Structures are given as structure tokens and as C-alpha cells.
């Protein structure tokens, strides 16, 4: 039998080098066509706001919030793996994404309001801001609202609570009162700044965090009727004249508050997230930041990504950018989905979504769906970015 098999193999026609090249080219062509199609097959649903698609990811975050409630009953917060800065962002983005669904789909509001309130209120827990308290040598941001220290990182919970109030989620009176005081402190600090910056940490100001401050103030005004226009105009003017690199169109990642001296390069990760936050406060600023951001988009084979550093600047990845591979930033690529959708940039959105799907890998477990890579924080971020649009300022 073995000899017969060998005889058949030996007698089979052999492929010439030309035939092999043709087969390889055909395989590459099929891959080139199939991969973008497969990874982008749901891009249009996300872009158009297909309710079942959006709600399936929302249900994944609702389930995560419910599980988080249970864990908090049994696990010491100091050892909880979700405590800290990443947990703060996860709860914040969950609240924002669910609130955006409320604004876009009234029928979904009753389902999500309770989870919006829970997620937003968790962002104000002490363990969520311990990283900032340590940076300020033990000064708790919420215990020093009468002071002049910026504590801009608390803009993330402030924005979550602002959005919860905008959709009339049932927050406690204590949360509402604390939120009003925090917004007033931010408004006072920002108006006093000649650069439109306030500090996140001692001697460190991040324009992205200040964009979140402006967003929290703006949505507070929409929710309560308080006129915050003077401080928002003050911030918007200084973004353009002090914080933006005119050559690249990107924001400087980190700056000196008093004189707006850059401490870091113009970078896409900060600009992408700032474009999302700016949309809550000032559509023109968001549009300008997005225009700069998409100047740094690169594409290959139908997939899109965003370069992290402006031309003439180089650096490695960090907590803000995520891994930087061949100059491309994982975080900036994901962040760019929000302004692409909110501002109607379909071609960029489709290319970026293909990349997100390729590396993120959607898993369906009805009625829920999730992106396998990135964990809870990745799903929360993508829920907010892929539903962005209804939160945009007029």
C-alpha cells in the first residue's frame, strides 16, 4: 500500500514555479478581500446606530456592573483588582455609553437608568481616586474643593454624573450636592487659568483631562439650566491658542499650567480622547481636533490606524497610548472611533472598526456581546466610542 501511494504521488503532475506564484497571488487576493469584509461586516450597523447591536454590548456592561456590585460586598476595596484608575474609567465609560444610548433610544432609557446611576456614583468612591490623592501628598480632591489645586482627574466622574443627571437617572441627593460643588470648583479654577489648563497632578497638566473638565461643566449646564457659557468660551479660545500644535493639528500631551510650556510631544492618543470629550462642550473644537487627528491616519488593505506622534517627534508607548507598534497607537486608533462616528466620517470609521474587530474579536452570547480582548475597560470604552454622537453639543 505504501509503495502504491508513493507511485501515485510520484506520477502526479508537479506544479511549476509559475503555477505556485499564481496560487500564492490568488490566496493573497482572497485574503486581501475577505479579511476587510469579515472584520468590517458590522461597521455600518454601528455607524447607523443599529439598536440590537448597540444594546448587546450594553448588556455586557450591565452584567459587569451587576457582578461588580456583588464583588464589593465580599472583597476588600483595597485588594479589589478593579479598584483604582482603570476601574474609574471603566465605570465612567459605562455610564457615558449607556447614557448615550438613552439619548438616542428613548425606549432603552428605563432599562439603563439604574445602571447609569450606579456606574456614575461608583466613580466617586474613595478607592477610585486614591491614585490622585497619593499624587497630591494625601490631599483628597473632594475634601479640598475650596482650594486652588486642579485635581483634573475628577473630571471623569464629574462627567459621568453630569450625563446621569442629563438623562434623569436616580442619583442620591448627596451625589447631586457634591457634584454641584465639584462643578463650581472646576468653573472657578478654569476661569482663573490664563492658559485654559488646570493641573491633574502637581506640575502636570493634560489638555485631555481639561477637555473632560469642560465636558462635565457643559453637560451640567444642559442638565440643570445653569449658564456656564463664559467658562466654556474661555476654555475653547485657549485650546486653540495655547494647547494645540499648529503644525500637526494635535494637542500637546502634557503641559505646564502657568505658561503652557509643553512637557511632551503633540500626540494622537490625547487628541483622540480630547476630541470625544470636547464634543460634549463645543462642537467646533471637537471638529478641529478631529481634523488634526485624522491627518495622522494610515491605512493598509482596508484597515485603518492612527500614528501616535506628530512628524518630527518620536517616543514609546505608555499608559496613555498603549502599545505603539511601527508608530501606530492602539489607544489613539480606538479613541478615533468616537469623533469618526459623531462627526460622520464614514470611511475612517469603517477602516478603524475593521482594525478594532481584527484585534478585539467580537464574541456573541445572546443577548450579550463583547470584545474578547481588552477586558471590561476595553468593552466600556468601545461602548462609549461606538455610540458617540447623541452627546454632542449643538
Q: What is the tally of beta strands?
A: 6
The first-to-last residue Cα distance is: 79 Å
Shape: globular
Radius of gyration: 24 Å
Strand line-up of the largest beta sheet:
1-2-4-3
Proportion in β-strands: 5-15%
**Major beta sheet summary:** 4 strands, antiparallel
**Which blocks of ≥5 consecutive residues have pLDDT under 50?**
23-32
Average pLDDT, to the nearest integer?
Answer: 89
Treating each run of at least 4 consecutive H or I residues as one helix, how many helices? 17
Order of helices and strands: HHHHHHHHHHHHHEEEEHHHEEH
- What is the helix fraction of residues, given as a range? 55-70%
- Helix vs. strand class: mainly alpha
What does this 3D model show about the protein?
The chain is mainly alpha-helical. The protein has a domain at 45-292 and 376-386. It contains 17 helices and six strands. The strands form two sheets. A four-stranded antiparallel beta sheet has the order 1-2-4-3. A hairpin with a 2-residue loop joins strand 5 (362-365) and strand 6. The model is unreliable at 23-32 (pLDDT under 50).
Amino acid at each position: 500500500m505504501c509503495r502504491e501511494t508513493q507511485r501515485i504521488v510520484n506520477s502526479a503532475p508537479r506544479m511549476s514555479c509559475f503555477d505556485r506564484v499564481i496560487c500564492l497571488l490568488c490566496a493573497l487576493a482572497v485574503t486581501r478581500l475577505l479579511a476587510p469584509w469579515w472584520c468590517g461586516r458590522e461597521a455600518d450597523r454601528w455607524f447607523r446606530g443599529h439598536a440590537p447591536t448597540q444594546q448587546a454590548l450594553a448588556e455586557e456592561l450591565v452584567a459587569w456592573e451587576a457582578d461588580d456590585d456583588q464583588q464589593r460586598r465580599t472583597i476588600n476595596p483595597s485588594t479589589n483588582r478593579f479598584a483604582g484608575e482603570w476601574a474609574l474609567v471603566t465605570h465612567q465609560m459605562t455610564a457615558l455609553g449607556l447614557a448615550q444610548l438613552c439619548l438616542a433610544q428613548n425606549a432603552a432609557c428605563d432599562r439603563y437608568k439604574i445602571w447609569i446611576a450606579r456606574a456614575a456614583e461608583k466613580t466617586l468612591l474613595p478607592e477610585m481616586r486614591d491614585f490622585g490623592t497619593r499624587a497630591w501628598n494625601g490631599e483628597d480632591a473632594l475634601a479640598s474643593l475650596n482650594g486652588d489645586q486642579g485635581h483634573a482627574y475628577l473630571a471623569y466622574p464629574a462627567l459621568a454624573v453630569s450625563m446621569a443627571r442629563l438623562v434623569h437617572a436616580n442619583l442620591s441627593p448627596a451625589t447631586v450636592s457634591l457634584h454641584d460643588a465639584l462643578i463650581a470648583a472646576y468653573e472657578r479654577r478654569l476661569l482663573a487659568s490664563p492658559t485654559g489648563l488646570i493641573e491633574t497632578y502637581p506640575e502636570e497638566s493634560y489638555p485631555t483631562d481639561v477637555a473632560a473638565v469642560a465636558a462635565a461643566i457643559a453637560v451640567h449646564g444642559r442638565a440643570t439650566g445653569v449658564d456656564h457659557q463664559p467658562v466654556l468660551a474661555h476654555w475653547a479660545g485657549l485650546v486653540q491658542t495655547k494647547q494645540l500644535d499648529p503644525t500637526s493639528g494635535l494637542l500637546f500631551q502634557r503641559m505646564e499650567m502657568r505658561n503652557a510650556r509643553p512637557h511632551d510631544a503633540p500626540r494622537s492618543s490625547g487628541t483622540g480622547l480630547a476630541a470625544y470629550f470636547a464634543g460634549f462642550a463645543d462642537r467646533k473644537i471637537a471638529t478641529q481636533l478631529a481634523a488634526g487627528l485624522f491627518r495622522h491616519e494610515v491605512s493598509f488593505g482596508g484597515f485603518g490606524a492612527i500614528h501616535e506622534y506628530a512628524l518630527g517627534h518620536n517616543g514609546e508607548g505608555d499608559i496613555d497610548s498603549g502599545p505603539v507598534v511601527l508608530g501606530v497607537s492602539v489607544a489613539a486608533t480606538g479613541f478615533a472611533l468616537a469623533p469618526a462616528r459623531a462627526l460622520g466620517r464614514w470611511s475612517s470609521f469603517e477602516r478603524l472598526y475593521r482594525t478594532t474587530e481584527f484585534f478585539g474579536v467580537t464574541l456573541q452570547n445572546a443577548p450579550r456581546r463583547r470584545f474578547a480582548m481588552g477586558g471590561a475597560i476595553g468593552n466600556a470604552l468601545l461602548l462609549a466610542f461606538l455610540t458617540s454622537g447623541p452627546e454632542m453639543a449643538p
